[in-house]
Queue: 3 jobs
Job 1
Amino acid sequence: MTARVAKWPGVELSAADLLEGKVTQTRFRPDAKYAWSAGEAISRFLEELQAGRLIARTCHRCERILFPPRMFCEECFRPTDAWTYIRDTGTIETYSVSYLDTDAKRISEPILVGVVSLDGASPKMGMMHYFGEMTKDEIRIGMRVRAVWRPAEERKGSVLDIRYFRPLREGER
Amino acid sequence: MRKVGVIGAGMTIFRRRLQETGKEMCFEATRMALDSAGLSIGDVDMVVNGTAPDAFDGVHMKGEYLLDGCGGYRKPYTRVFTGGGTGVFSTIAGWWHVASGLADVVLVVNEEKMSSCQPHPQSVFAHIWDPILDRPLKPNLVWIFAMEMNRYMTVYGIKKEDIARVAVKNKRNAVGHPCAQLADANITVDDVLKSEVMAWPVQRLDISPPSDGASAVVLASDDFIRRRRIKDRAWISGVGWCIDSTMWTDRDLVFPEYVARAAKMAYGMAKVRDPRREIDFAEPYDPFDYKELHHLEGLLLAKKGEAPTLTREGVTQRDGDLPVCPSGGLMGVGNPIAATMGMKIGELFWQLTGQAGKRQIPHEVRTGVSQAWGDLMQYGCVVVMRA
Amino acid sequence: MTFLERTTDARRYRAWEGNMEADYIYTSGLAGQRFFVALRDEGRLLAARCTACGLDYLPPRIFCEECFAELTEFVPVPPEGQVASLTVAHQDRTGALASPPQVWAFVTFKGVRGGLLHRLLATPDAARPGMRVHIRVRPREARTGTIADIEGFEPARSTK
Amino acid sequence: MRVGIIGVGLTAFRPSTPEYSWKELMFEAASRAYADAGVDPRADVGSFVTCAEDYYEGFGIFDEFVPDQLGAALRPTCTVSGDGLQGLANAFMQIQTGLIEVAVVEAHSKISDVLTPIGIIEHGLDPIWNKPLGFHPYVVAGLEAAAYLRATHTPTKALDAVVSKTRRNALRNPIAAYGAAVDMDHVAASEARFEPLRSLDISGPADGAVVLVLASDRAARRLHANPVWIRGVGWASDSPSLETRDWAGATYARLAAGMAYRLAKVRRPSSEIDVAEVDDRFSYKELQHLEALGLAKSGEAGKAALRGAYAADGRLPVNISGGSLGCGNVFEATGLHRAAEVALQLRGDAGSRQIDGAKVGVAQAWRFVPSATGAVAVLGAGP
């Protein structure tokens, strides 16, 4: 059929057609505001971040230490068993060197961002975060890193209470 | 289990901006699919709509909004939504409407109008992340691709030029596609490697563009197909779908296990035992070039880490042993998320019925597989179709 | 109750604020373009005709709901309509008290499938279903090619 | 192939639930449903269906945030952007194909997480023809209520009877958020909102989650379950355009019921149905829906309501659960909650609100303002 169809539907517009109002249009911004309940697990997680600590939940059935913490184990489908602190050191699992900000605008100083698996949690359990005190040429998968925390009085109970992860220094564990 | 066939397909052009409203786009694709099947709206029992985030079109409950354009007026109509997976998933939902015996003829209509959102559809992608764990870091969607691509490259030692070959192949394949937004007959690996770095390792030409577009397919039961003596049909012989855990920072991103599970489900139903030998061509989801490779491995069409070799050796070219994305894929035709059904399901139908025109695979093909991927690197869905 | 432990100190539960807001530009589409240009430039209403079903659609559309044919013919809508249903809203779009209350009406036109929903430019006491109305269009220079180019429906003078 | 409901899980419905994340709320309902059915979701369930809309949740792609708390990680799972009853219909079809034996349907509301619910509902209006006018989205309900009352000559007093009956019913439902001893006078005297609707004609929002476990008859036997059978499902939509839909008659409900009755072989619904749960998120909807479902003749539902025909001891108990007026508006979970209530009634597990001898029940849903979409399920007691 595709060979038999002469004209395929669709009227293409240019940016000017749209943005300068050359075709009739309406504009709108929805009123869409939220306050998500963090719930049992994430409220505690945020409270501990504010205190400068990372906390996880253990599942006794599959013997995993789950981070970020949750009140149920997705593997066993049962409630998790206990709270446990984990360390703020870890390993870069993957990363990107981004020249884009949230709105896809170009930035000249790239953002180093990636996933860190954290020591003390089960393998591969980690979080997304920024990297600092390293250049885009130094960063690599497998690099050992440590969290750099904001000063206690600036912490708000947010993943941003960690400023970024920096490379572990010589002799540091 | 009733046998279900695809008997018609249609799609709009894929472009950065279209003047049509979302429902007008749906109408155009649907009208075309019905015409190609030789049916009228009165023949349609039920309608399935697939469309991805409401925040693109900028309409809450946009399945309801698009309904009349999809031919759903006063009919049973349902929207399904599995993120980027919707492009193939809606056909799976359509399949169960017919295979269950509840409907004889079902329209599946997919749509995305990404140009409504200002200043850029990327602004809306910010809302797909966990609000507490991820959003404070102000992530850009490209990051997840970059992080997954980097891990895939690093673990298997894959070179960027081997990934760039996918972009080149698909953009060249798209030259024969009348709806294509980014076809390029002359693009080279060097062009891709020299394109602007967005979020390393992702460069501009590694990415499919945001687009507006709609597509539609018509599904029917074998009874109906026999009764109406419909000649152009391709059978849906296997379906599979699977979601992985939400906690994406807890997963090894190197292999899409969820795609493999969906593929095994579909192959099991289609009685495909050795996919690499029994599948003649594939339309895996390729919003980024490396995703085609990642998904070929998930579809068990290449061993882990070996998909780049197939591309390098020309196996996945249109005239190769395993043509991959003969449509031109998302990389070449465009990426109006759910509407990519036009390449994933539509192309299988057109190829298997010998209607693909300039894109027709030169040798005989009898079994094809299409796949889509979505959510936070966690959704896989697979459809196997036979001539 | 399903977890093995729970907090009982309500102060420890946190809420996280955010939004899903963005700016949108919606094109009025192929049928909308015909309608809004006629409204903006000539101050008149157009319907889309399905010759097969003998239906004139308002708002105009490029496809017939019933037979799914493509519609390309546009016809004028009669000047006078009738209030099919009305409501007096005591809240504005944000949920705040509307003072005075707003009167909203769905108005149909003879021989036309559909109609228009808009403000009824009458007091709640004077508003009643069945009343005859016509559109009041904003001055030409204030019109931009949207449904807000119509100020609302006002009672038809002929019935006064 | 017969398909039955073998597990029912509900959380309490509450105006707000600050102690739960949406995941934790879903986990509780799922845990209850799996315990009720005696299934292990990791081993026994072939498919999971969630019913949700992104803007109600505050996520660009809510589907991402679903699997873990349902036991659905690395399993076939999908989102139906619809009411829970549409999800139930899809799970029903999945089982009918023979591909799936046990399927789970989930729907929930965490509407207390939304600071601007009216803004979200407004965002569902047509962006070209309606949104620029800037009206409160419940204007749509006001216009429809006026059209319905006028077309059927139903007195406003009938709405007072609906609200009074339903909110009293909710006093006997421990999960209800808005049970109250409301008299007809209270309703009549409540503040005018979207005339003819007054504040007590409009259901209040609530959080809550509902999970149902469905199984083929073969799987139900294997699991030693005691199913309530899904005898028929139906769903349909009228025009999404406010301008061309049927304002008076709830055509979507009539079409959906027609389909469900056809599958269930119900020929005379008014005599064959023992208990009905219909969408009453605005009071007039209960009457409009009863007529569309063929449970009352057009224009008769209001008079019957005034006679007490729909009370717990009436001819046809309607919204014995307390409905949405009494339990709260749980958005996409509304229809699934009603199916759960009918299933509990048919099982004899409805506690102090149990209707004696109920054998066949109907649950009906509508997708709320501004939609004209609805679904119906006809359920039957075993064997």
Job 2
Amino acid sequence: MTTDFENPIVSLVSRVLSPFIMLFALYVIFHGHYSPGGGFQGGTMLAAAILLVRLSSGSEVAQLQLKRGVGTILGSFGVLIYFGTGFLCLLLGGKFLDYELLARILPVSKVMAHNWGILFVEIGVGIAVMGLLVAIYDDLLEGDPDA
Amino acid sequence: MGNYFIYLSVVLSIIIFVPLYRVLAGPTICDRILGAGAIATKTMVLILVIGLVFNRLDMFIDITLAYAVLNFIGTIAIAKYLDILGFKKEKRGYKKK
Amino acid sequence: MKQIFFLNSITKFILLFGFWLLLSGHYDVQHISMGLFSSLFVILFNLKLRKHYFYREKLDEARAKLEDVQPYRIRIGRLLYYLPWLVWQIVVASFQVAKVVLHPKMPIDPALMRFKTGLPNTEARVILGNSITLTPGTITVQIEDDEFLVHALMDASQSGILDGSLPTEVAKLYEKKPGQVLRKEDIKISKSNKGAEV
Amino acid sequence: MDLQHLLNLLTIILTAAGAFFLLVGSVGLLRLPDFYTRTHATGKADTLGIMLVITGLIINQGISVNSAKLLIIVAFVGLTNPTATNALARAAYHLRLKPWFKKDKQKKSEKKEKE
């Protein structure tokens, strides 16, 4: 069914570009404190890279990249990372998301612990945004034979 | 040199309004999307020049790249929707014959 | 086949890591290790998709088996010649469009052309399609298997396709001495909506 | 006339030429008669315009990380712009948008003259 709509130019170009867009998204997540961006923007770009393959090659083929049910699970997992980091700080005797206390478990200085804490939170937010956006796309298209 | 880029950004932001006419008046939906794409291309250039004016080009380049990616994906999505619409119309026409 | 796939993955990894190094302006242990991790993650994420053969690629594979030849691979050296040539073509194209657009009478005479090429695989067809879009006065409307549908703005702009220089240039990216890529009898030009099979 | 002046002059010429081609693309979008001919204006003039402006900025920046990133943008636009144009043209073709032809136009005007 998808072969009817297949546009070889769009399909091939998106397959070539998708990994690079994904890497750019990871760059946005990891460099959140030097340049604009951070978890949310990076997560959106990651979702965009995945949706590009879904749009161009058809939903069936794109299951090879990320399966249908995985989006929701990844979304929950991202939120878990975010809250896990926050509650870890609470357990260590500080406030919610009080990163500097992470230095008690991680073998780094207080400043570096702050750095790592922010990184964990941003990775969590990125995964959550990506998973949920892909899940929304898949749920909207459920049962559509042309997808 | 600093002033020149300010003038250039003003000129570019005036140019952006030209394709807007096609977006508002375009007889078919494809014309409107084409106009929107043209606006996006000019906006990318404008962002870069403004980055040079503010002396933070490294930051604005990232924004431009993100903008380019999202513009591309948006155009592809709409094009695919219209494409499938056309296919469905065609099939209905054949059935009537 | 497995070896080629493995080598391809390594090349892709190096490309992705180079892209990361270009993007990231920070060259310390933390950021470079993040880059290595990210590139590896992207490669692993796309592994299954890259192993998959798409519809058109299956057709190409079947044809390659029929004609009993090795699958074609792009020649990097030729690409280095092709890209500047293409940029020059874009410059010429834009001047032509500018001349037409700014001319008070707008001397355009559009035409739809259909033709078939003997290009070896989908990649080559996609390169030709995008090159046609970028070169003077022509735009690829559709590619169906081997058949191209091209919209041309003026009579003068058809020459690049009619004399076969552009398709031959693309075919040279894959083979040293390509055979006849385009036959003149195959080109159909329609300049009217009446009687066309549109 | 030292080197810096020359580079500045080159930047100004390139960016101004780029802005000119962006303007030509927009004017073409307004003046040309139908969708397919309008794609010619955006597909080519805009691509060259953005390439020229970015080349000017690269000369302004010299050899640095920023220049490399700008080159990435050029490559990205050079790849995606024709692709998006083709996707739209294909969609229009499947929507049965009739192309504008010179002959059809002439026939119509002849009919009007007869009437």
Job 3
Amino acid sequence: MDFFDRFAIPNPSPAIYASMVAIGLTMIAILAGLTYFKKWGYLWREWLTTVDHKRIGIMYLLSALLMLFRGGVDAIMMRAQLAVPENKLLDAQHYNEIFTTHGIVMIIFMAMPFIMALMNFVVPLQIGARDVAFPRLNALSFWLFFMGAMLFNISFVIGGSPDAGWTSYFPLAGTEFSESVGSNYYMIAIQIAGIGSLMTGINFITTILKMRAPGMTLMKMPMFTWASLVTNAIIVFAFPVLTVLLAMGTMDRLFGTHFFTTTNGGMDMLWANFFWVWGHPEVYILILPAFGIYSEVISTFARRNLYGYKSMVGSMVIISLLSFLVWTHHFFTMGQGALTNSIFSITTMAIAVPTGVKLFNWLFTLWKGKIEVTTPMLYALLFIPTFTIGGVTGVMLGMSAADYQYHNTMFLVAHFHMVIIPGVVFAMLAGLTFYWPKMFGFMLNERIGKWAAWIISMSTLMAFIPMFFSGLDGQARRMYTYSESTGFGPWNMVSFIGAAGLAVGFALIVYNIYYSTRYASRNIAADPWDARSLEWATHTPVPAYNFAILPQVKSSEALWDAKKHGHELFPGEYEKIHMPNNSGVPFIMSCIFFGWGFSFVFSLWIPLILTTIGIFVCMGLRSFEKDHGHYISVDEIEETENNLRGA
Amino acid sequence: MRELFPMKQVMGFVFSLLLTIVALAVYFLDMSITIGMTLLLVTAFIQAAVQLVVFMHAGETKDRGAIYTNIYYGIFIALVTVFGTLLCMIWGYL
Amino acid sequence: MKWALLTLLFTIAAVLTGCEPLMVLDPKGPQAATQAKDIMLSIGIMSVIVLAVFSILVIMLIKYRASKQSKDYEPPHIEGSTLVETICVGIPVLIVIFLSIVSVQSNYKVEAKPTGYGDKEPLIIYASSSNWKWHFSYPEENIETVNYLYIPTDRPIEFKLYSYGPITSFWIPQLGGQKYAMSDMVNTLHLAADVPGEFMGRNANFSGKGFAENTFNVKAMSETEFDKWVKEVKKTAKPLTEDKFAELLKPGHLGQSTYTGTHLEFLPPPEGENGGHNHGSSHSTKMEKDGNESENSSESQQHHH
Amino acid sequence: MKIDNSLPLEYSTEENSNKILGFWIFLGAEIMLFATLFSAYFTLVDRTGNGPSGAEIFEITPVLIETFLLLTSSFTIGLGIHAMRLGNKKAMMAFFSVTLLLGLGFLGVEIYEFVHYVHIGAGLQTSAFTAILLTTLGTHGAHVTFGLFWGLFIILQVKKRGLNPETANKSFIFSLYWHFLDVVWIFIFSFVYLKGMM
């Protein structure tokens, strides 16, 4: 029995058992449904083995929405627990697990795939390419992320969730103070997903640098592509740090090394240091694609070209460099002295300058425009004021002497939620609404969409503004309860109402998807928003090869040129198109990775060795495989194009 | 046979051996930590540059801009990470 | 819909004025005052920026809405202007430079002995945390307390922070900002109380299950009162033995208690360059994992206020 | 697939040239990977706990052998690529084989070194210093081991399929990888061993 004990949950509660049953039933329902409707073959051929960037993008999107739900439920539970003083809804242990998983799920398994979804779907279309540079690697990236996410998510029903915070500072996360396998899940699930992200980074840099349509020089790339390029550069240089860090953490937990322990020379500060060497650039990995989306949306619906294109690009490049120079501001209070703090305080505040440039450029894009407030535009317009509040409080936090008072308090929590929610979540929702017609062939309902946008943004203010005050009043973050005499009660109640409002807003988005799927017109043009860049120049739905003829580009707004200035986008004739073959290997290899991770978490050494060999066998097979892709003939292209044009 | 051993690569190899021997001086000779570290830094970075240019052909295609940008960016951030970490973990407390 | 936002702001402002002053903005010591001043200054400057952004946004939205324009209006192509962009870079740069100067000055202020106390020697107090308690050792007075802290008002205080276990953060908001206490090094935090009073102190860094209740009470009093208290403790409190301290270190919550002698004698804090790296291996004070929860030590006199 | 004959074989298709650039970017990531290990090493180097310090356990002879083997292998694989560009399949395979043999020799010495360290009480669990030392060396060693298999697979493919755009591309990318490992070793040699023994 000893062997099975390790899989039991250390801190069970009825809620966990209920979710266990719910997960089991859902799994059975999905499997039964697939069998009953005979969809296994379809699933395998069209999705599990696909290397098409558009389908991979859609799979990222679905995973992100799923994880948004998971992270959102965590958030609601936390706010409910804190809504009144001395609440007994959750106990300390349960609360600790929830805020830990909330942080990781939202950042690594929600925001990351959401930006990956949009990058995957949009970037190749926006640069006029047929796919990404390494389509199969792209599939592997997705499946590694997915398996990492699944591995992380089973933690709360098998073996127990991590409970040392999303930052998992040692020695708290070490075996001495965190005995359950929870922190093993943290180390290994994030590691697997992180490898996937790193490969995405390499893939997209190569794609953007090498596969642009003829005529599209670097300075003629649409802004979202620029944002993606810079983001992926940050990914490539930041994620290896995480890889090493997690490996060291894993060794401390499983192999008895002393990197971060309190004995034999271990240094707990080093974990915090490397965590933020990765963690701070990670913030910009999330925010820059969001900036790209806003640039596209604002310029489309102001019906004007983006103001200050060059300074927009320049500011992003500067942000990408500065993002690596500021990490110490996450631990100003660690004692390193006034000089070090001063240096990092200045670099931190310096980031406000390029960010401010972007903000003003968006505002000036509205100038002399013809502003049409659609749902994506509404998100962008609501983003500007809310993000400004988040941004300026960031400058305040950057002042290290004052940071001694903000650090580890709800003020900090308020700041980063006011940055990440308007910055990333609004942008992703804007991008979702904006690109939905291209992805699925119908528009989301505008009326419901706008309601959702208003509810979400107002609820965001309501949920997080009070935290600025409770933080300044001495409420530390991550406290599972507080006494009535502290006076934090009213602030937290308002926060809870805001959080509930956010839930309503997200429910409305889900309803919108349902409603629009049922009732929206399928008869939409390729360019329903009257947009400006190349992704809108191809048909809806987008054919597998994206563009029958590679577009000729003259500016960053190629489609606009074609529409307004009669520029010929697609000169020439059809030629046969080379496309990559589907492959099951990325999926299978990632499944083995899942087994590898699971064995690692529970220290099952024999399965671990077997799965490790399995992974290398997959790589070896790939090395010897002859896969030259296939060609789509001119006849087939003609047929597809005629059908799409007729539709 | 001769064409299999191009001058450039042979010289590169000889040069890298020389640099190794120079670096070895810090082991065999008695010198201060400052001089020793300077010597090691200089030889190591020249050595890396030799590999990059002579053996790895970093600059031979039209992607050289991207390749060099990538490497310089990487080295810059690597140095920031190494020295920043030392500043925050050790030097800042002295 | 703009009114919705305004209403919200007004509500918040109304709630604000109705409340007692926020702890951090109600400083009772020179360090906290420096920090509160910086905070208010930055809030002021930042409000101007927020207002500027809001007004530009509102103006743009009012003037350039599609519904306000003729159907055939074609927005012009504008590349951007060097002048405008110089201003957009210049003003933030000036603000950042100004804030940097303020910030750097304050950094050196909060990292030094508080000013305004003449040449009085600071009172050194070792504050160490263990799951989930605070131990305060007064080497000069040779006494030790658990979970409460008495300090004199007319002397600067120098806290020496370290931890038996996870990283914690020592924070008394009304006296000054926090600093980490870690297991392998000693951090120094300079504080001082200008006026007598009772303040909240806590560990601000998440440290596991008992984190929420990891608080302590701070009482600042005049030097004569402080000396009286020290004398009284020396008369009534039991000595802190090695066994007793090992018992105190067990994970759990404790009430307040007082001892004569300090644990510094038999269990010196980590020392040496960068905190001395052998701490923990040379002294075997590993905490037992499953201590008694909320064990209450009532061996010496309990201090309630 | 279009083949551009003006370029060396390994760059001749669009896919090939993408792969080479992609690999360079991967090397950028590798720079950061090792930079992180070096940062950790420099931070923990003096934190020896109850274990030995670097000066107490490092020996110059095996290190010099390792350095010489790896430097030479970097040279021979460079010659291999040169031979490949001349279209000399036989010479190329010979140089690649020599490279792998030298790599194997390096690995042998490194394994001896590891066994020695553990034997004299400098194991993975001894102290923060020994842990980061063995992790840094081990990460490099694991890269070399991986490279040995990779190189072997490539030699087999070149032997069976001859020099074509695909095999040439693989060989070239492998050579980049191998040179990079040499560069990393130079830094380990200088800043771990020589600095430790200085």
